[in-house]
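Dear Dr. H.,

I hope your travels went smoothly. While you were away I took the liberty of generating a structure for the chain from your last submission, since the lab meeting agenda had it listed for discussion. I wanted you to have the full record in hand beforehand rather than looking at slides cold. The sequence, exactly as received, is reproduced here:
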Amino acid sequence: MKKALNTDLSWSEDRLQQEFFMWFHNSYPHYRGLLFSVPNGLMILNEKGEKNWTMIKRFKRTGMWSGVSDMIFLYNMKAYFLELKRPDGSNGQSKDQVEWQEMVESQGFQYICVNDFLELKDFIRNIVNIKIYM
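The corresponding predicted structure, in token form, is as follows:
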């Protein structure tokens, strides 16, 4: 992952994901639903603003897995995993994220860790614009 040169560095990771999702949603309306977020980082808080351990345990028992990528794109019988980071490069992958990336790539899937809006767009354009002739 490189420091983004073509993105407003005041963007947060969330804003990058929101802008990217809206661009995809508007650019590829016939593929809506094939790009989606994985709310693994969702912090479940109780009424006092503290972590709700009961809900966290429930989500873990039903399949939440630490390190899973922020977004998944399904296209042409393949899955692509997208991990988004702050455009200023100030946050890297956690140990769990690196381990999950290695596991996914060992199964032949493509995983990208990116902090640049234009790089994200190019990544999707390259996937969608590949023509398969038989």
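Two observations you may find useful: The chain has a mean pLDDT of 86. Residues 13-27 form the longest helix (15 residues).

With kind regards,
E. W.
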